[in-house]
Every structure is written in C-alpha cells, then in structure tokens.
Amino acid sequence: MSEIIIHSGERFEQVYLNEPGLDLHFVQEAGSTLKIHVLNIPDGTSGDRDIEISNNIVVEQIGEGCETEIYALAHLQGEAHVTTETHVKHAVGGGKSNQLLKFVLEDQARGRFIGDLKIAPDAQKVEAHQTNRNLLLSETAEMRTQPQLEIYADDVQATHGASTGQLDESALFYMQQRGIDKEKARQLLVGAFMKEVIEAIGEQHSAVREQLLNAIDGVVE
Questions:
Q1: Same domain? 209 vs 182
Q2: Dist. CA 212–CA 6, nearest whole Å
C-alpha cells in the first residue's frame, strides 16, 4: 500500500469504479480536502455473481483543518462477497470527516463493513460522522457491520449509525396502487437508495456521475 499525500491546501477527488481489490492510504496535510468514491456496481453477468471484492481505505489527517469525505456503494448479486474497511484517524484538531457507505445485496450475496474512526487526545474541535445503510433484497443475503470508534478528545462532535433492512412494503404498496407494477416499483426504490451516493460525485467527474445515473434510470424505465 503506497501513500498518497494531499499537500496543504490541495483538493483531491477520485472515483474508483468496479475495482475488486483496493488498498488505499491517504495522508492529509493542513487545510487539504479529500473526497473519494468507491463504487462496485457490476452488470450481473455470470463472472460478477461470485466475485470477491476487498476495499481497504486508510486516511490520516496530520494537519489542522482537513476535510475528508468517503462514499462507498456496492450492489451485488449471486454469491458475490464484498468487504469494505475504512480507517480514519484525526491526529490533530480542527478537522472534519464524513463517511456514507451503502450496500445493496441480492440472492446469497454477502457484505461486511468495518469502520475504524480514531480521534487522538490532542485532536480537539473535530467533527466526524460515519453512516452505514444496507438494503437486503432476499432472505438469504447477509450483511455484517462493525463500527469501531476510539475517541480520546473531549471537545468533538462524533456520530455513527448503521441500519440494515428490506424494501419498504408500504412504499411498494403505495406505488402499486398508482398503477406501477411490483417489479418496476422495486427497481425505483432501489435506484433511489443508490442515487444518494452517486449524486455525491463532484463536477470534476460529472461524466461518470451521469453515466451511472443514466444506467440506473435505464434499469427502472
């Protein structure tokens, strides 16, 4: 794993699309901004239905006033398996970090999220948030989530949340009552769940963002 240094005042944004093995290590200097998107949305062909995906993301804020955003999305079918780990360390104060990770699992697909957030004793005035939301579309899909928070400073704002569930049956019923068949309603709801992550992609990578949004719209139309 090689380090990628985000120098003081720099802005760095990158999209990693359908890369089954990522091992990323970022070091942020003072006032830098890091925004990364890790998206695993295979097309459902036979080779994708038993794929093993491993994403490991390490971020160290070593300078004051850094900002970090991590977005991850995986939509898997068959017996595919994904493990995503994030390790974010606030070594100094005044920084911000926000993580939003979503998993959509069908058939016998399995997912695992390990989120390690550390705030050092001298890292006062830090604001750090971690959110993991999961959607299981079958009785045999499985998701495990392991948030790990180590907070040694007292003047911080830090939150984490995780939820795993199925499609909202009341929303499905509502849409069917308005003439939308069940399968199309299901696809619309899944698409809406996924779009929150995709829409976070910035203008620098707008072509990728629009391609992914159009792909979702193409499925549900």
A1: yes
A2: 27
Compute the half-sphere exposure of residue 206: CA atoms within 13 Å on the CB side of its CA.
2
Residues 193 and 146 in one domain: no
**Residue 137 sits in the same domain as residue 172:** no
| Residue keyed to tokens 């104060």 | 93
Of 125, 147, 166, the position where a domain reaches its end is 166
Domain range enclosing 88: 3-166
User: In total, how many domains does the chain have?
Assistant: 2
Q: Which of 86, 205, 100, 81 is nearest to 149 (CA)?
A: 86
Nearest to 116 by CA among 156, 84, 153, 94: 84
Angle at 159 between CA 156 and CA 162, to 5 degrees: 165
pTM for the whole structure: 0.92
Is the same domain home to 189 and 106? no
**Burial group, residue 67, by CB count within 10 angstroms (0-12, 13-18, 19+):** middle
pLDDT in tens, the chain (221 residues): 679 999 999 999 999 999 989 999 999 999 999 999 999 998 767 667 889 999 999 999 999 999 999 999 999 999 999 999 999 999 999 999 999 999 999 999 999 999 999 999 999 999 999 999 999 999 999 999 999 999 999 999 999 999 998 877 776 665 776 767 777 777 888 888 999 999 999 999 999 999 999 888 754 33
